[in-house]
């Protein structure tokens, strides 16, 4: 999924946010990660940097420097209060996707 996001370009993710909000309303969780990727110059394969580093003639390579962007997103989204993962029940997951 990360390479797919890089391939499409993270600007696409931001562009469709409003469509998802209209379609799914409160069931939609929007992480600040995509916008943070763009702000840090990581638009994906189109500019050679996203979750991976893209160089002509070679396979995508994981970019460990993206971890600081992911961590900032976690803090902004408060998805790990106190640094611990939140618990989501099977029932809650089903409700989110229906």
UniProtKB/TrEMBL annotation:
GO terms for biological process: fatty acid beta-oxidation. This is Peroxisomal fatty acid beta-oxidation multifunctional protein AIM1. SUPFAM superfamilies: 6-phosphogluconate dehydrogenase C-terminal domain-like. One of its GO terms (molecular function) is isomerase activity. It holds the Pfam family 3HCDH. InterPro entries: 3HC_DH_C, 6-PGluconate_DH-like_C_sf. GO terms for cellular component: peroxisome. Residues 1-54 form the 3-hydroxyacyl-CoA dehydrogenase C-terminal domain. It comes from Noccaea caerulescens.
